[in-house]
Design goal:
With 41 residues, the chain is mainly alpha-helical. The protein has one domain (1-39). The protein is built from 2 helices and no strands. The longest helix has 23 residues, at 2-24. It is elongated. The mean pLDDT is 73.
Length: 41
């Protein structure tokens, strides 16, 4: 059970790291929030 728990934590952290990396590279448009969309319009 510990191995599964560790794998889940690592996968969540890697997903968050990729999200922040995409935003810093300008790829945050994919995950634009509704407020950002309303400002653009």
């Amino acid at each position: 059970m510990r191995i599964i728990f560790i794998v889940m934590i690592v996968s969540v952290l890697s997903i968050l790291a990729f999200k922040y990396a995409d935003q810093s590279l300008g790829g945050g448009d994919i995950l634009a929030s509704p407020t950002e969309l309303s400002v653009q319009n």
